[in-house]
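Anyone? Bumping this.
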Amino acid sequence: MNFSFDDQQVQFRDAVRSFLVVQAAPEVLREHWETTDSGRSPEMRQKITEQGLTALSVPEAYGGLQQGDLDWVLLLQEVGYHGIPDSLSDAAYVGVGIVAALEDEAFKSEWLGRMCEGKARLAISHPLNPLVHDAQIADLILLWHNDEVHAATPDQVGLELNPSIDASRRLYKLDWTPSDATRVCDAASGKAIWAQAVNRAAVAVGAQMVGLAQRMLDLGVDYSAQRKQFGKPIGSFQAIKHQMADIAVKIEFARPVLHRAAYALQHGDATLEAKVSHARLACAEAALLAARNAMQAHGAMGYTWEADLQMFMKRAWALESFWGDRLFHKQRVAQALFAADAQIGPGTTF
Amino acid sequence: MNFSFDDQQVQFRDAVRSFLVVQAAPEVLREHWETTDSGRSPEMRQKITEQGLTALSVPEAYGGLQQGDLDWVLLLQEVGYHGIPDSLSDAAYVGVGIVAALEDEAFKSEWLGRMCEGKARLAISHPLNPLVHDAQIADLILLWHNDEVHAATPDQVGLELNPSIDASRRLYKLDWTPSDATRVCDAASGKAIWAQAVNRAAVAVGAQMVGLAQRMLDLGVDYSAQRKQFGKPIGSFQAIKHQMADIAVKIEFARPVLHRAAYALQHGDATLEAKVSHARLACAEAALLAARNAMQAHGAMGYTWEADLQMFMKRAWALESFWGDRLFHKQRVAQALFAADAQIGPGTTF
Amino acid sequence: MDLNYTQEQQQFRATVRGWLEAHVPSAPLPSFDTEEGFAAHRQWEAKLASQGYSAVTWPKDLGGLGADLIEWLIFEEEYWRAGAPGRVNQNGIFLLAPTLMEYGTAEQKARFLPRMATSEDTWAQGWSEPGAGSDMAAIRSTARREGDEFVINGQKIWSTRAVYADWLFGLFRSESGSSRHHGLSFILMPLDLPGITVRPIRQLNGLPGFAEIFFDNVRVPANNLLGGEGEGWRIAMATAGFERGLMLRSPARFQKTAADLVALYQANRERCDADPAIRDAVMKCWMDAEAYTLATYATASRLAKGAKIGAEASTNKIFWSELDVKMHETAMSILGARAELMPHAPRAEGIAQWLDGFLFSLAGPIYAGTNEIQRNIIAERMLGMPRA
Amino acid sequence: MDLNYTQEQQQFRATVRGWLEAHVPSAPLPSFDTEEGFAAHRQWEAKLASQGYSAVTWPKDLGGLGADLIEWLIFEEEYWRAGAPGRVNQNGIFLLAPTLMEYGTAEQKARFLPRMATSEDTWAQGWSEPGAGSDMAAIRSTARREGDEFVINGQKIWSTRAVYADWLFGLFRSESGSSRHHGLSFILMPLDLPGITVRPIRQLNGLPGFAEIFFDNVRVPANNLLGGEGEGWRIAMATAGFERGLMLRSPARFQKTAADLVALYQANRERCDADPAIRDAVMKCWMDAEAYTLATYATASRLAKGAKIGAEASTNKIFWSELDVKMHETAMSILGARAELMPHAPRAEGIAQWLDGFLFSLAGPIYAGTNEIQRNIIAERMLGMPRA
């Protein structure tokens, strides 16, 4: 029993953090989002590739690093903290996981190889998300159809842009017709692949939510240390302090739940779904509270486009219903908790 | 349209308040509760009778003051504030209402007359309350049985004492058998009588809850002004201030709902049940928050038997499920709100 | 107590309802934080004013209907029920006007109020400064008296509607060397005076809903002083009382949102009940919207009897702002993955109001004095708790 | 990361489970806030001690099992799972003992710890004073050194278990004229010394769960000083760290309550679902009890790698205390009209635990440093926010 990360995992996380601090400053990201159609930067993707992120999940046999969910869960907290668009985790974590689970070796070779080289963007269409983000610039869209896996390129599908309050997100309503030509996996195999993809995606969203919560907490603490009213920094007022402390408590008790879910993903677990959904709920709760309280600490400044806080708040609001909304995840927890054979109480956690 | 009380109503309320301030000090009440079996004092009941409270609802034809629900709702806030046991409202308000609605003139004459003279205690047994309070010292117990109204004296029923956390409450499980001899009203007439009784009782509980909330707020504010930590009164700390302010807000927005419910009771209303239950929920919310926050302001002192706060907290906890618990009242609101023909939105309040 | 409307009140409601049914635009106007939308809303205000509806509580000779507070509540109920446009000149009509009526000269009233009623003049407020937000007494912008003029220098911020408005009212330090709430004056000025620069500030939704205003030796005629020189704080506090009090957010607004929320829940009921918290929140929101309405009627009734508005200003502010957030958060939960869509997204059809409303609701606990400040006020002034 | 128990850990669990199944009293013991109950609990502690179970983390030679934190968690899980009695000597075993082990002399350890493990000596704490609650540095009780003795004067309050306990540990001002956290000493003393008066304080439930203690020239041998003279604050802070940290409230406690709450909900499900908030609260409580467990395992794992306990002390305190209140409030709602019944009421059969637990839960946000103080600590020490 050892519920802590290996030094190697922590070091890799720290390396990525250092990279993001330098390369993914808010002003850089905002420029991509506000001045380009795609909201994405090939240069940024290239740098991310160099960090090894796009190859992280790819099996060694296909030239990748073959790392697991526990590695991702640490990294994605940083991705969230730094506001990197969440399409990264869809492509490099969830999407690669789907492709790697397919049987068609030629297909896998091509796309996993391209991912390793940073030469492919994967997008995913799944009924939990009525809209698909980054579909327009994807090199390949993986599509759910009655548990089958299909694959298509953007020119094979109709795309209708639907702008999100989160300026980083490029969401599209897809119009497409499944066919033998697009099918890459039948429903019998696809069912498990999609189930794992949904759980991975939910953990990925949770991890980003925790990162976002931490970022908003830091922004709230920083702003309230600088901003003075009544002759004192507002951060010296107990009301603001307690609002910030409340975020910290939520984060402290979301992280271990998240990490347990990632472990369950990596090692398989009979109640994986409930564990993942619990993590997702706890992380979202931290992020949404952080958004509320950090905005309150910012006062009117928090209501502006100019303050960086908005980038992270909007991401949190958008992610709240990405890959399963609160209703979906609560229902999965309820199914496990209220089942006749539920194992609960002391000693049942692991 | 005039949503305010008449001067006369306010003056009567003020008079009763002045009386209770003097006669119902916490130490007096505690002595009754802690040193007597009944928890009641004949002297106190006599004084309350002299104030006109036991005759308040009795029709003039039977020697009473024939006042209505709006009078009661003001008085009962004071009753709650001063911690007078809630059996008073059961007897003088709800019980008198039941008796006054019966057809048997001899029965009415006797019991309404005795109420006016302060020579009767009425207790009520209704399925919403599995236990009956003050059943042992009641002169008459009014009992529900399949919508019929029955009446019995304590010696005609079996009584099993069940102590409450609220030292003022004397609760009894009743064991009795309905018979022709005990029946004073059939189900056809009884149904409406009991419905009105339940609504009255719920408003009475709500009114006492608001009074309790105000009392606990006052106790919290007083204690935190006196108690010093870190060289200052703890009431000067923002955390305590905001906890007290939160109670004040709840009270401010519970009172008008309560008053509207009393008006609906007095004048009849198609959605009376929902209005009453809404009031009951809002008032209980204020009282329960007041208990939590006032205790927090009291620190360890709030956890003692010695501090008066406990009297009012315990009453609030007990009343929370008296004459319908939260579930019951939420369901009544839901039935009205989610009905196909519900009238909601601007302009539908009155 | 009598909770029946009089025949006159019923008649008033019927008249308002009839007029609104005939005149409310069938499609929503564009946001008044756009130039086009501001113009459209100004036209709508003129149309309202033609009936005395832009300012029903004002005296008839100033463009109103002389309505009392109960009639105002009725009007607001009908207005929100009809889904009529937002009020682009509310800073003027609901905030400044009551102050003008109390403290303005006859000349000022005649000069400003009728044009305000018709929205020929629209008004922005100039309270906050970069160093004076919740701490309004920290104002540093100056108004130096020079003969028949004030010379204004400094900076205001968070001026709602200032990007397109015609006039500004605000507080300026007119006594050199004064501090805190002393030596401030309440001054009105057109926003096109030489020396005024208005810099729009983009809000969360990307639109310039408020602005920074820079004053560089702006010369304002002294007859634009409201009340006495150095009396500004007292007068502004009266305005703040109105703002946080009754007129800023009429209950009908929240009843409309609550009813819409109930309808949204009902339309998605099977889905919603996967999360029992939603049903509970919907019920609570509706009850609280009712409670706010009842509390407002109670206050209006007390005021009609001669009472003065008191702590209601602060308790109201907290209650409606937190209710508004809760209602919109609940709606966001119900909408799920569609909640994030911008109003103009094709898939946002029919739900565009909710994201807009959600963003707007988040400002509620901040503007007009943050809810932290309101809680301090309740604790110290209403409950008498010791100051820090 | 490896979330599997080792074979040794599984074996340990099985052994503990087997012993508890054989020895846990079938009927609950009377409350340890009664004389009879205190004695019964003391006997139970002696039985636990016979297996090294009263203090599993202590070294074997002092009466423990030398268990690590993971084993401690396992033990606690089994202990709560078995529904075993409350721990009457927890002030000694979980709060004082770690401090004694770190700061005590060999002689003190030998003198106090084995008798503590068997509960031959039970311990009460003497932190708070009438003017020093959350502000512990305001202590005024004095310990004047006279040769080989300290002469103690003053008053302590809120001493849990002090009515029946044998010994007291606490902080006293040993340097005349010192202020705040300077000049305090950490002193141990038997509660039957001449000059000590223990006045029971009745708690909400009517029982004397804590006491006031008056000291009138009480003479305590100097070898009962823990650590150096004037070092008391530093030593006490270490104790407070333990208290708010891991050992005060093991997660198993809350998992047991959460599981009981789920069972209560399931048994009353149809009724409960009239209020959708209940189902939601039950789920949330269970999730939070799991989260608290996971966080504790994570902390234990970090400590095993050599990390020191940090802000967990304060975040834990807030989390478990608010969870405990929420769980019991939810249970009260489910129980409805039966919730108010005292444990000995005939109709409280089968539900007596809930009212007791509810009352106890309300003390959680207050003792061991109020949650307001904990939030200050988090803000200032963990987040680095400016002091007031």
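Late reply, but here is one note on the structure posted above: Chain D touches chain B through 48 residues (CB under 8 Å).
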